[in-house]
Amino acid sequence: MATKATPARKRYTGIPLSAAMILVTLGVVYGDIGTSPMYTLKAIISGNGGLPTMSQDVVLGALSLIIWTLTLITTVKYVLVAMKADNHNEGGIFALYSLVKRCGRWLIIPAMIGGAALLADGILTPAVTVTTAIEGLRTVDFIYSLIGDNQGIVVAIVICILCVLFFLQKAGTSTIGKLFGPVMTAWFVFLAAAGLMNIGLDLSVLRAFNPVRGIMFLFDGNLNAAGLMVLGNVFLCTTGAEALYSDMGHVGKPNIYATWPFVKVCLILNYLGQGAWIIASSGNAELAAIPDLNPFFQMLPEQIRVFAVLLSTFAAIIASQALITGSYSIVSEAVRLDLMPHMRINYPSETKGQIYIPLVNSIMWIGCICVVLLFQTSAHMEAAYGLAITVTMLMTTVLLTMYLSKVRHKTALAVPFAVFFGAIEFMFFFSSLTKFFHGGYVTVIMSFALFVVMYVWRRGTAVERTQTVYLPVDKYLDQIFDLSHDEDYPLLADNLVFLTNDSSFDKLDRDILYSILDKRPKRAKAYYFLNVQVTDEPHTHEFIVNDFGTDFLFKVQLRLGFKVNQRINTYLYQIVADLMERGQLAPQNHKYSIYREHSTVGDFRFCLIRKMLSPETDISGFDQRIIEIKYFIRGFCGSPARWYGLENSSVIFEYVPLFSKTKRQHKLSRRALEEVAPQVAAKLAESRESAEEDEDIFSVQMRDEREAQAEEAMRGLVGGDTASFRPLVIDEEDEGDEGEIEDGGSETVQEGEE
């Protein structure tokens, strides 16, 4: 085995704390949770019966629920507990599952449910936040005079903004974060300042820090008209908590630790300011008459309200970013866990955690546009908002409990953690179920569809692995050597390259060997079996080779940094040249060339093998459906030829059956030609007579031309004749038997399809 020497690599340790990354963190991570003051108390007021019902006790109880929800769910569960459970500095529910998957085989189900729900909410959130912000422009008189109540204009503006937002994703979260960071910093400062300006209206709001106030409000029907259902609105204050955990890999754990206290203080100050204003204004009949009263804007002086609306619009646009970048991380982890198909992943910056997945970006973009067109208004969208996230939070609690008890061996902490947070989140989930028939069904449908994709991919992979056989390469060296020198077969290429997912150095997938030796034997001067590995370092360029003691067969592992372009054809020239320099491969001199100096490296052909399911495959009906759906999904995710820059190379796509075992087929019987020839001649004559009787206007118009063609064929061709347009039935009296055979054939196919 020959190894290309490279400098020692350092272990990837995550993104360090820095002023620049703190700014990026404020711009990327907190958009969703940072815009919650715009609608949380508004929703609570509306759900409790309007401004006149908001007495001091009601306001203090609602504020207490908000403060302690932020503290318990976001600070304690996610910042203090969940962020400790990182997988190589990556966060999110799939990264968490990677840590606990050995603790129980069943844990993949909550991971799939939670991941699907979070991705579905990631599609809904940009549509909700941007639409809410644009509708807020109507509170400014001169803007309202321009757009009025025409919702079509609002929808058009929202769609344009979403298109720009998703287009910017390819620039990377680092670039976007630097753009959004200053805006979000100004936003949080504005939240704190607006809250402080109004807290003085009623300092009693400070009593909301007492959790008893929240408990009393929740269970006192005289104060809380909505009962436990009010939690569905309170939950809006913490919808960005799961995205905070998922975005950990983008910005680094230290930068979240440094910024969350500042963000939380700004949020609480604003909520307290809104609460003080509500208490002071509860008896104002003019304000009570305003439909959908929003205390966030109403508490501000008229002269700064325009600025507040514009700033909140930018903040709402930025809020979408947290869910988009979090979705990239979730999908990347799902691909690594074989829960989703392989996709092209780009790394726009020097940081491995900051990724861009073009296919995911396109799907989310289309999904957001469809949600906007379907719901039209933010009021309809908000009915579905947060329902899926409660499911994700419950699943995260299950996985975190297993992590604490089985991985960290802290059962004494895991049990109360599960009971406490499970109870809280189940109440949030139960209260959010009231949104199901008012729009929540859309989120549920999207979540279910994503879960089906994960289930199909995982189940399909398991079925495929039952048929995967790895064979020792050294057992086939003699055959491959003889084939490479067998002139009875044409030379396919000087260098024949197979791409493989197998990272071992001494075995090969049976299908590759089958392709070389059995399925039209492929003669080449040298064979390469290439496996590509992406490293945690950005600029790794190295390879490892096992030559099996030969000069014609090489298994190569190409190790490339995540920032390195994976156009492998250019690297193969270097690998072959290195093998020649070391005497492991004979020069492949070109006899013909347009260049004055002929290259010593021959031509390349790449063979890409795709497994296919044939109708004859002996497989249960359910598993066959799973495989068919998996391969259908695979078709949408691109080809390795594009991922590895082989579009302009000579590529062979070869399809091999997934299963070697096939069903028992009907045995054919042979009939002598002499037996059927007279019968066939008679039927042919009868068919021609019937054809003339059945002529229609189209065939009559073409009769002269057809007869002229027949005469020319008789003169110019040996045995020239013309064919009848009617299908020839060989044996009419046996049609029933043929039907049985056909039925039996379709029965066989259907048996495999069930």
Task: Write structural notes for this entry.
- It is a multi-pass membrane protein.
- It holds the Pfam family K_trans.
- Residues 495-652 form the K+ potassium transporter C-terminal domain.
- Keywords: Cell membrane, Ion transport, Membrane, Potassium, Potassium transport, Symport, Transmembrane, Transmembrane helix, Transport.
- It catalyses: K(+)(in) + H(+)(in) = K(+)(out) + H(+)(out).
- It contains 31 helices and 9 strands.
- Strands 1-6-7-5-3-8-9 form a 7-stranded mixed sheet.
- The chain is elongated.
- The chain starts with a strand and ends with a helix.
- The chain has helices spanning 19-28, 31-34, 40-48, 56-81, 93-100, 108-136, 141-147, 151-168, 173-199, 211-219, 230-234, 241-246, 248-251, 253-281, 285-288, 295-298, 302-336, 358-375, 378-382, 387-407, 411-432, 440-465, 477-484, 510-517, 568-581, 621-634, 640-643, 673-693, 697-701, 703-716, 735-753, and strands at 2-3, 470-472, 491-499, 507-509, 523-535, 541-546, 553-561, 604-612, 651-657.
- It is α/β, with parallel strands linked by helices and 754 residues long.
- The model is unreliable at 1-12 and 719-754 (pLDDT under 50).
- Helices cover 57% and strands 8% of the residues.
- Strand 6 and strand 7 form a beta hairpin.
